[in-house]
Amino acid sequence: MPERRRRLPPAILAGLCAGLAVALAGVFQPTTWRERIFDAMLATVAHVRPVEASQPFVLVDIDTASLSAIGPWPWRREVMAKLVTAIAQAEPAAVALDILLAEPDSRSPAALARSLAAETGRADLGALAQTLVDGDVALADALTLAPVALGYVLDPRGRTEMPETPILSRDGAAFGTLWPSTGATGPPADLARPAAGHGVLSLPGDGDGLVRRVPLMVSIAGAVRPGLALEALRLAQGASAYLVAGDPARLGVGPLDRPVPRDGMLRLAPLPLGSEPKTLSAATLLDGRADASVLKDATVFVGGSAAELGGLRASASGPLVSSARIQLDAARQFAAGIVPIRPAHAGTLELGLGAALSGFSILLARRLRPLLAGAVLAAASALLVVAALAAAAGDRLYDPSLPLVAALATFVVTALWTFSEARLREARLRRRFEQHLAPGVVERIIADPTSLKLSGERRVVTAMFTDIEGFTAMTRRIEPETLVAVLDGYFGGVTAIVVAHGGTVDKFVGDAVHALFNAPLDLPEHPRRAVACAVALLAWTEGYRRESLASAAGLGRTRIGLETGPVIVGDVGFGEKLDYTAHGDAVNTASRLEALNKKLGSSICVGPAAAALCAAGEVRLLARAEIAGLGEMDVFTPSNDPP
Q: At what angle do helices 135-143 and 109-120 cross, to 10 degrees?
């Protein structure tokens, strides 16, 4: 008799499947979720390592009080020259202007005189300009009083050549893929020449809008250029060039020797409480009230926290942080040697730990009592978290969430399956009996609704878009309760008519209704049904407008656009909610046809493809119109729709 092949118990198989599913989900884990985990880890270890460098860092802030005292932004160049001069007189190590000075001065007396001379042709005005205050000349003179770095922004339409700072490479060391741009916009040549350094001001944001990285190096038209934070450090250290050496690469800035990420981006680490940089208001420096002694030998960043400067960003330091403060934090962090890097092997290591912990979880769930097994797993998880935090304190970023979730999911599934095996055996006959009598009911009970996903498919549909004329203006006139009541009645009636004609309401967007015919189920003659639905909708909405509540609110007429064509539809919902969305030219055309009603003065616009599938006499030519992105086409309307 042949030997029976041993099979894994269902509980172990279920646990392995759960762990595998979590591992696969981890491969496609959203970047912002992982970054938030790293934010929390770096904030946790912030207090165990210093952030102060050998030289002080000071922020000169153009704040709201400065604008009130000096005047609205932008300030004239001679005012900026006075501010730079006041800083330079305190003998700082370096000054970095987080302000884009992109155009020549046009507001100083000399600039105005030159402009008038050019427009009137009067030579005396040109000569007068030589005797008046010239903002660019004053600022250029101020830039020579201290090592000052000016900023420029990445701009594909800007110049391809920017001031160069030597970057030396030793032993073939090089950066990886840097933040690229085909050009940049920076200060005019008269200001660029006297500046001791130049750095990038641009800051990239993550998917959730937070600035978590500051560029140390970028690529402009294939040439490597430094960021403003790094350029300020170079000037403060008195270095004439940067040195890239080693594998993995390290970046030398004078006596500073730090590891550098391959993408040239410094990952910001949240600072511990009490480590805020010294800050001086620009107004107090200009009027002499500030204690300028704190600027001596400091690396000074000049920027604005006033909203008028447009430089406020969300970062690890807070929801509204000036870009100058972000650049300062990056410079101070790099100087202190805090350079968090995610190692190249991190993903592989996390998957391996997830697999190991999943196997350990299966063993615990099968061999130990639930409470004891849970305690052991919790201890192992805590050990993993501590190890990840220790690595973060050493500037190595590993994500512990994937192994932890994989282990927890595997443990829960295995434990629950093991616990329920006996109950499942006892209930098998009852389930079979219930399935025989009421399979639909039983299916809803035993199925996991979150696993129901309808796959994407290509099918021909008729898309319909509706919109209420003058809705935005109406919302300004009526109370919120009235608006909600009017829309409730409106959407209820529209939905009932669409469903009665075999359509599916895709979604509500504001006052608009998006509907599909022939999706998700087949609907014969769907273009004709959609046209009939549009006519019925128009008749009902016109009657609804005359009802007391809608009439008092001033509800506008409904405009409708529809077109037929092949699209891709797919379920974007989860659980018991199936929310079909269609993508394709027919959808875009229907939306534009709805908007075309406003231009044509019509209520229903039917595209040529849908009109061709209607019976003779159901639609008539409305106009030949130019539609953005689609060209000129014939537009139709139902025959019984008044012109």
A: 140
